[in-house]
Specification:
The chain has 372 residues and is mainly β. Helices cover 7% and strands 53% of the residues. It has two helices and 34 strands. The strands form nine sheets. A four-stranded antiparallel sheet has the order 1-34-33-32. It has a four-stranded antiparallel sheet with strand order 2-3-4-5, with no helix packed on it. A four-stranded antiparallel sheet has the order 6-7-8-9, with no helix packed on it.
Amino acid sequence: MNRNFNILRFIFAVVLIFTTFLSCLGRVMWNEVWRTPIGQVEPGNIAKLGNLVAVVTNDETTLAVFDAGSGEALWEYYTEAYFYAPPTMLAGNIYIGDSEGSIHSLTSQGELRFTFDGGDSILTPLIPWGNKLYFSDGPHLRCFNPKGKDIEWSFTAHTGEGERLIWSPPAIEDGRLYFTCDEFFYCLDARSGVELWRYQTTDYAVLGVHHPPVFREDKVIVPNPGDRLIALYTADGSLAWEAHIPGSFWEQPMDVALICQRGKVFYGVMGVSTYFQAEEETPKLLEGIIIAQSADGGDILWRKKVDTFSGLFWDHNRLFAVCGNKLYWLNLNDGSARASFEITSNMESPTIRDGYLFYYDPQTSELVGVRL
């Protein structure tokens, strides 16, 4: 009798511990590990590079580098030019381009290896593929060989209005390089820079697309600078599908970061609408929204409204959304929050990678590292 009672007590204790663990899951996985004082962080300019966190700060002229695990400030690199995009790492070395067209190569300890004159103002991160780096400066897409310190090829994008600026970082898949320049989407051979095809996504682009496309099997999916997503076949650039964004939400051109996982395309936006009153056009801010669409056909699968929207990230097979001062771990099937967390101030310039969240806290002027 006592033995059976003890077994029941044990089972009850296990169930209680398990349910308590589930209820505390959010607190368990949220673990702020460090805070480090820092100057003003430029929007979108925090990058995790191996065991380092690199931040563009101080009016875009300084690259500050920290230890990702402890937040210890390691070194700074200053230039009189501006850094418009965060750095990248290739073969253990750090590379960043500046507003005067120079490529700076530094060791992970902050020692300058070389500076190379890349051309015009460098607008995107230097994207590594193989042992090369790919980037845009002005209307040009270039391939840089760090070992030979030379430009292997250069491609100039042309539109109906002439030369434009390329804001979107190139994306490389199966030896092909993809990028957007205003109303045209290009596919190049990554090794030679030869144009394979182009597709006109809209009649006229009122703003540049600042984000790369994503891929689903034999398709590439690109945010249209108009009001819809477009999926093209990678073989020849023919249209696979296009899907308009929910009409009640959009009155602004589309320039969003996409995530494609598990057959779905995820993205989030802040909506801005306008209305007319007394012959004056007044902007009216709408709530944020996170959307999931089918990567195979573009159908809307679910929508999640949020108070504000800052960024969407995929890390360790989890979909995270940073929304102002809140972090959500989202269910892929319906957008519900599997866990959510809240701090007292907004998480500015957030990035999530390798199980860490990094952001700038404007209330305390600190860079924050959080273990997820």
